[in-house]
Amino acid sequence: MATGSETAGSGAPAPAPNRRNVRLWLAGTSVSLFGDAALWIALGIWMKDLTDSDGAAGLAFAAYVLPRLGAPFLGLVVDRYRRRPLIALINFALAGWVCLAFLVHDKDQAWLLYLVLFGIGLGVGMHNAAGSALLTRLVPAEELGPTNALMRTLQEGGMLVAPAVGAALYTWVGPRAVAGLEVVTFLACALCVLAVKVDEPEPKRPDGKLVQELLAGVRHLGRTPQLRAVSVAMGLGLLGFGFIETLIYAVADEGLHRSASFVGVLTVVKGVGSVLGGLAGVRVLKRMGPGREAMLTVFGLGTMGLGCALLVLPGVVAALAGVFVIGLGIPGAVVGLYTSVQRNSPDRLQGRVASAASMLATAPQVLAVFTSAALVASVDFRVLLGVMTVLVLGGSGYLALRMRDFPAVPRPTTAQPHSAPAAAE
């Protein structure tokens, strides 16, 4: 568990979950991610069609994740305001921002697509940090892991359909139809979040200096062994996995001799794997019990590494198997990270710690996207896939070794302190 003077659970404990509130939160977050996935795949294909460049298409993802590098600032904003109204406001703002895509008509305006993705990435980063903190107010600590896994499963289910919807709308109606869909999903998410009823007191104003408050989440990660190990492992794993955002176009084009739209098929297959992986994560976490979430990240990264290795093999079957196995591993890796953050961080730092963990995991991913985009034209994509595999498996192995030093967590033999019966719906 957390070390140092600030431990998890400081502040009022979360009440027994009100199922209506949890369902609204899950629905709003899932529908928003559905729109994000549909838009992201469409804008990547659109960029490829406008520029005829795998690198430019891969950089679309970099534009989406680049704002996460401002995590200390984003986390401080999240921790200074009540999370529920902040999330609603963010989604209303994003609904307007995505309309910039309607202005793109030819290659000369393609830069607007990067601007759209940058803005969405900024808003989604704040949404995720605030949402991670808000969830600790909606469910008790012992239910965080299974709830996170369920949320990831629902999101992956939406993402399973979203690429097909995005690619179909792009092909039959045009990319602006996908942008319109994203507007609707942002508005739907905002309305669902506003309907959630939660006891969320006004956050206290920070007492320290601005720099100290900005770095508080990073410092907490650094002095908490579990969080430090999980964050480093995810950073190493995503340093490799970030290559996929560019290489997936090379796999479809050079490896399988298919059009860029075939990336949508590969993404759907990955989504099937992620849905199954999320469902498995719910069961695994319940069997392991609270406090062992980092092991799920070990399994998740290891499975992703195996899938990356399969992509090196030639043929459509190997490519489909590879993305399916990658999908199996993604929910475990992500759920293990963010549940560890929620359980090992005080309430007043939840936003900053979640943002810091996201930054430490995302920064290597952004570096990998830029690196792969620069190398894919001159280095055989199969060589880059091999490098990606080694890095992802290295992250899994590192965390497995570090977990030997974690303090033992006894399995609960009685009901947890806040596990009261669920509130009436």
Which tags fit this structure?
mainly alpha, Growth Hormone, Chain: A, 0% strand, globular, disordered C terminus
A few lines on this structure:
The chain is mostly helical. It has helices spanning 19-51, 54-65, 71-80, 83-97, 111-138, 144-172, 175-195, 210-214, 216-223, 225-241, 244-255, 262-288, 293-311, 316-343, 350-375, 381-402.
What does this structure look like?
The chain has 425 residues and is mainly alpha-helical. The protein has one domain (19-197, 212-405): MFS general substrate transporter like domains (Growth Hormone, Chain: A, Up-down Bundle), CATH 1.20.1250.20. The chain is 73% helix and 0% strand. The chain has helices spanning 19-51, 54-65, 71-80, 83-97, 111-138, 144-172, 175-195, 210-214, 216-223, 225-241, 244-255, 262-288, 293-311, 316-343, 350-375, 381-402. Helix 1 (19-51) runs parallel beside helix 6 (144-172), helix 4 runs antiparallel to helix 5 and helix 6 crosses helix 14 (316-343). The longest helix is centred in the N-terminal third of the chain and has 33 residues, at 19-51. Mean pLDDT is 77; it is low at 1-15 and 410-425.
Strand content: under 5%
The class by helix and strand makeup works out as mainly alpha
**CATH class value:** Mainly Alpha
As for the CATH topology, it is Growth Hormone, Chain: A
* Tally of separate helices: 16
Q: What helical percentage do the residues reach?
A: over 70%
Order of helices and strands: HHHHHHHHHHHHHHHH
Total domains: 1
* pLDDT < 50 runs, ≥5 residues: 1-15, 410-425
Shape: globular
- What is the arithmetic mean of pLDDT? 77
